[in-house]
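Chain X:
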Amino acid sequence: MNALGWILFALPFALAVYTYALYPVILRLVASRADASPAKAGELPIVSVVIPAYNEEAQIRGAIEALIAQDYPPNRRQFLILSDASTDRTDEIVREYDSSGVELLRMPIRGGKTAAENASCGALRGEIIVNSDSSVRLHPRALRELVMAMADSRVGVASTRDVSVTADVHEANLAEAGYVGYEMKLRALETRAGGIIGASGSGYAIRTALHRIPIRHDLSRDFAAALTARAHGFRTVSVDSAICYVPRTTSLRAEYRRKVRTIARGIETLLSKRSLLDPTQYGSFSWKLLSHKVCRWLVPSLTVPGILGLVILAPTHRWAGMMLWLAALGIATAIAGATWPANRSMPRLLRTTTFAAAANIAVVHALLRVMFGHDDHLWEPTRRSPMLVQPPAS
């Protein structure tokens, strides 16, 4: 039984250490030897910026104002808002900016984000397409920085560097900022080591030829963009200077629901393009895909067997008993955080523990949804708090 206990505990522990500690270290070693010579930028190409929107009357005006403020020649940019059959004032607000060159394309029936993006391809005039979101705000130089990164003919997709922001320092989802920061540092290392394996849904640029390749309506286009680019011989990079400000969701419950939807779509997207997991064909890209995505999905799934291993080892190993107590404490604090009154400020330690637990449970929840099926394949936009002030300039 001891041998079984060791196996059950060691597998998730070793996988977690590799995924969150060793993988970044290996990336850093690989990145230090990579060729970082930048490509020379030529004439700025025509760019089409696409923002899908469904009932975004509270957000769409700010998103449009951020687009108009972009440091990019007005005669070389197209702004297209895709209304997914909105039933509020979204369309009316967009039409107010007709004189500023903002175009509205309304879907006759609601079909979801990816379906609307697929349907809009015929209306796009740009050599490069930039996909963004109505709830985020692009830095005034973000568009230019993304395009400059694509002066390198080897780059098929360029992604923003997301910065998590909020106007409420006491809100429950503060731990999201730390996670986003870690993710962006990891993407920077992956970029220096040859390229990232998924673009940010908040903002990314893609060559028009790649964008026009149809994506199934129930899949994640931002994740699929990087996979499609690699399948066609291109790299995907994260551009540190292309900043996108992302408001945090208003609560842990809302963030949990968002994560479940996002992870489930990500798993389904990877399953549809699973050939990219073949290292004999795609080399280091497959390794990154396994390390960054598959391993992250496996770690929470192996937590229960890991705890069972500790239960088996606890009678003969004191350290296993101590870890069981720590696990129990973590579960208790996570439950306390999940049931914390919405109108009361949550202590920082409780916020962090609850966020970590929710993030891992969301992975298991998403895996179960994919395994057993689910009906809600239609895109639901993440409802974030509107930015009451302009984000910082840098």
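Chain Y:
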Amino acid sequence: MNVLVTGGAGFIGSHVVEGLVTAGHGVICFDNFDEFYDPAIKRRNAAALSSCDSVRLIEGDLRDQLALDRCFNGERIDVVIHLAARAGVRPSLLQPELYYDVNVMGTLRLLETMRRNDVTRMLFASSSSVYGNNPKTPFSESDNVDMPVSPYAATKKAGELLCHTFHHLYGFDIFCLRFFTVYGPRQRPEMAIHQFARSIMDGKPISVYGDGTSRRDYTYIADIVDGINKSLSALQGYEILNLGESQTISLGDLIRLLEKAIGRKAILKQEPMQPGDVLVTFADITKARQLVGYSPQWPVELGLEKFVGWLRQTEEVSKHSLPSNN
């Protein structure tokens, strides 16, 4: 099977590509290496991936039709895993037009390119952010998601609607996968766990927004990749699936677990809650269990230990790669 992975050089994408290669699939890795965070990080991921004969790397933007056409020309694509997006809740408040352009128009352009090339199978990366401040927990796929609280969340809901439209009009098989706060090795550096861990290791203060009681359903990257692989095998019709750990932990307890894994106390700097933030995320994964056999295996305690080990190793490699003063 040949798989196009958009955003394939990013955090989640690079893990997904690795899994596809291990399973014996051919992969087209499409990424624009934008500057939302240091492009060198994604280029390192891409360099490791492109050393494999079954991976073809294409640098391009979802909004560039010529770049998309390069993906579909020359070889058959059987399925698309659409992970590329402008990420982040808080930044979307500052650049809502950019988020709409990339996440909505980019997704529409990709779907249209698929239609013209008779490619009708997709996994679409949605987000738990679509649930907003839903008072009912855990969040179920049948819950109303008509009240997003950030432009980012609104673009992800719009993406789901576009996917349903193409399923209805053209018979596309599409699963929209709502990811719940994914973390693990290669996590984007601006995300909370990565920021917190690095600050604790460096003895720098952590900005804690709110009183520390907000709760998140943190999902380890290996469980997300497993959920994607199982969704790929079951892909038929149109479905929305939660991929989370189905466990929550408070911000305060998360920091305490990081302190334990790192062996150092955090320096806390209290800040007010930020616009666009939600009080809780909590996945009901009953549907994903039943439909695709999704079964998360990584409790947050083990996942954080694994992440901290990766971060230490990365820091050590970076330290030894610096030029010598001798």
